[in-house]
Design a protein that fits this description.
Its cofactor is Zn(2+). By secondary structure, the chain is α/β, with parallel strands linked by helices. It has one domain (about 5-10, about 25-180): Collagenase (Catalytic Domain). Helix content is about 25%, strand content about 20%. The protein has helices spanning about 40-55, 100-105, 110-120, 150-160, 165-170, and strands at about 5, 30-35, 60-65, 70-75, 80-85, 95-100, 175-180. Helix 1 (about 40-55) crosses helix 3 (about 110-120). The longest helix is centred in the first third of the chain and has 14 residues, at about 40-55. The termini are close together.
């Protein structure tokens, strides 16, 4: 179960199934990210972004040309992963993905963690009861799950989130999703 905390932003892999292209809109939304504050996660971040880009039609993830120009940032932390819940849009408030070393120390796959947390930036909530094939099932399936690719339903939801960027902008949440460690997760 995710804990949702109101926050002010800025302070703060299975195979992907193809899904039909959504109704076209004016342009693909490009979200830029800065990974300079998480160098030990560089490969996992790049692979996670590649996995999302392969699954999406309406949004693209790309490294920012400069740290200050990113729509969202990745930061390495010692704690448990947490992320701004999107959908983040260009020109909106900057989102942040905190890639927590604690999850890796417990045995979770770095690429799955990075791709899962990126899913939050794209507007997806946790579903810890889901199977390993669902990226947003997070730590639910345990440390043996290394799937870092969104399934068809997850990819379709993100495409809907970015189908009309004028609708996405006001829906930008100002919450942080804390992927609580299994032993620390609150009881339902």
């Amino acid at each position: 179960m995710a804990v949702l905390v109101t926050a002010t932003l800025g302070v703060t892999t299975g195979a992907a199934s193809a899904h039909p292209a959504p109704e076209p809109h004016a342009a693909v939304v490009t979200l830029t990210y800065d990974a300079s504050r998480a160098p030990q996660w560089a490969d996992a971040i790049a692979q996670g972004a590649k996995n999302w880009n392969a699954a999406e039609h309406n949004v693209r993830l790309a490294p920012a040309s400069s740290a200050g120009s990113a729509d969202f940032v990745y930061v390495a932390t010692t704690g448990w992963p947490q992320t701004t819940l999107g959908p983040i849009v260009p020109g909106g408030r900057t989102g942040q993905v905190q890639l927590g070393q604690e999850a890796v120390d417990e045995g979770y796959d770095m690429t799955r963690v990075a791709a899962h947390e990126t899913g939050h930036i794209l507007g997806l909530p946790d579903d810890y009861t889901g199977p390993c094939s669902e990226l947003m099932s997070g730590h639910g399936p345990g440390t043996s799950c290394t799937n870092a690719k969104p399934d068809t339903a997850e990819a379709a939801q993100v495409d809907r989130n970015y189908a009309d960027t004028t609708a996405a902008a006001p829906a930008q949440h100002r919450r942080t999703v804390i992927d609580a460690a299994p032993a620390l997760a609150p009881a339902p």
